[in-house]
Task: structure prediction
Amino acid sequence: MCQYCLNPNHKKPDWLVDDLGSAGVPYVNFEEFLPPPESSYGCLFSRDRIEKGYHVEEIDDGVYWVSSGWYDTMFVRTGNGIIAIDAPPALGENILAAMEDVCDEPVTHVVYSHWHADHIGAASIYGDNVKIIAHQKTKDLLTRFPDSYRPVPTETFESNEVLDVNGVKLQLSYKGQNHSEGNIFIFAPKQKVLAAIDIASPGWVTFRDCDSSENLSGYVDAHHQILQYDFKTLVSGHVSKLGDKNDVLENIEYLEDLMRFAREALETVDVEFFTKQLGDGAYKGAFRDAEENYFQALTNYGTKKMLEVVTSNGKRWAERLNGVQAMTKHNMFSMIEKTRLERTHNGYMLRGGKPSSPKFFV
Ligand SMILES: [Zn+2]
Ligand SMILES: [Zn+2]
Result:
């Protein structure tokens, strides 16, 4: 029996490495996790998604949402051609099928949210005769790291741009680095639909390491920037449901708890508890051991606080958002590291001070 999924028919495959001990990372078992909240399901179990591999629906007045269940995006009919946003490979040509389900207009314009391959890695499906609009940094990155599946943008902008196709308008805006450089906000003002990709995740906890965000301060800030829009519907790029303002506020509350407990961990966990075993002449490799255990202690301290905290509606995070028990340790580690790197250090070594301090924050 496979000890990782409890399926009696599974046998351990040759590639499965589970003998690294403390040099590796441990496996989990789904029975250790609470069932995910049903409020997070969205189109996950809808018949069309399961049968066709995608779900498409009109959000409002020509703005459509298409989802694979794990990746989603939107497109806009103009009456004289479609504006496509992104092209996640997980949807691939199913995006074209979804467009054909609802109209017979060709794609004339493509907007890239950001340069990541998991969101635009199928953009070549739109062919050579489309205008591709993106932030200048997205063009710079795709020029530096070429990929035939991600054609280089034909038009770029720096801060704000209005894309007007046949009178249908999209407001494009770049507010600084967040999840990645060049990641923009795409807003349909008439329909009040906002595409903000890889920022909020309605009904779910953010994916590992706060979705691998490059700048966690900018990533958290981007949630507040979403709330500055007069939007009704959020397309997030992931999960299986559309979002609204309450979803963003819920994600912000999770992130604020994450920031609060990351800082508390840094101020509480005593690095000397782990380093004092290193006496004079101790084998230098032991330093790695102390460092590893210090970071594990920081992460576990903050994760325990996150799992136990009673949130604003009286529930715990695992009862509110999908993925909390699996993802929080990864998000906590990232938040601790980025707190160290991006936020104030709260002091520095004083002249004549000792080489280590009882707490990370002096
Ligand atoms: Zn991304
Ligand atoms: Zn993503």
